[in-house]
């Protein structure tokens, strides 16, 4: 059972186990926003199993302008869809091939299916006559740092929809 932790400003901060979330609530550091599943029965009390908690104090997240480019990050940014044909993507492709001076950057990497990746090879889009379906850019927002948000729980949807890039 996972619990979404929201900062005092309602932005996603982390995903923790329900036991850790319950500890944060019991020590007065957080409040339960949403409950899910069977309640937790203790010797003296019965508690709701927290699905989403809100911290009582704002936690300042250090701002880091450069976010490391990863294969998983590119696939997640492009919603696991091929930037060329729209089918399910399983790999990444350099828009400007590395053999022609292309670098590993958010602006040069896109999600791609194997078929399009093999067809493109180390040619440019102009040579292929292809166009990108998306404009590749670095992801924004603190939720990108939370790996568990790739598979969010259904109860979290109303708290994640408020983020435009979620």
Helices and strands in order, then pairings?
Elements: E1 2-6, E2 12-17, H1 18-26, E3 30-35, E4 40-41, E5 46-47, E6 50-55, H2 71-77, E7 91-94, E8 109-112, H3 114-120, H4 125-128, H5 157-160
Can you give a write-up of this model?
There is one protein chain. By secondary structure, the chain is an alpha+beta fold. It has two domains: 2-63, no CATH class; 71-128, DNA Binding (I), subunit A. The chain is built from five helices and eight strands. It has helices spanning 18-26, 71-77, 114-120, 125-128, 157-160, and strands spanning 2-6, 12-17, 30-35, 40-41, 46-47, 50-55, 91-94, 109-112. The strands form three sheets. The protein has a four-stranded mixed β-sheet with strand order 2-1-6-3, covered by helices on one side. Strands 4-5 form a two-stranded antiparallel ribbon. A two-stranded antiparallel sheet has the order 7-8. A hairpin with a 4-residue loop joins strand 4 (40-41) and strand 5 (46-47). The mean pLDDT is 86.
Q: In angstroms, what separates the terminal alpha carbons? A: 21 Å
Helix count equals: 5
Low-confidence stretches: none
List SSEs in N-to-C order: EEHEEEEHEEHHH
List the main descriptive attributes of the protein structure presented here:
single chain; about 170 residues; alpha+beta; DNA Binding (I), subunit A; elongated
Brief account:
This protein is α+β, with helices and mostly antiparallel strands and 166 residues long.
């Amino acid at each position: 059972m996972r619990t979404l932790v929201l900062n005092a400003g309602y932005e996603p901060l982390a995903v923790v186990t329900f036991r850790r979330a319950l500890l944060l609530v019991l020590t007065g550091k957080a409040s339960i926003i949403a409950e899910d599943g069977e309640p937790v029965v203790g010797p003296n009390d019965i508690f709701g199993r927290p699905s989403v908690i809100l911290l009582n104090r704002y936690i300042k997240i250090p701002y880091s302008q450069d976010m490391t480019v990863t294969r998983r990050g590119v696939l997640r940014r492009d919603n696991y869809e091929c930037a060329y044909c729209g089918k399910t993507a399983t790999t990444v492709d350099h828009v400007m091939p590395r053999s022609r001076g292309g670098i590993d950057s958010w602006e040069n990497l896109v999600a791609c299916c194997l078929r399009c990746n093999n067809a493109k090879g180390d040619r440019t889009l102009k040579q292929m006559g292809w166009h990108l379906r998306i404009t590749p850019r670095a992801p924004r927002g603190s939720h990108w740092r939370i790996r568990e948000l790739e598979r969010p729980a259904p109860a979290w949807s109303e708290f994640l929809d408020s983020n435009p890039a979620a």
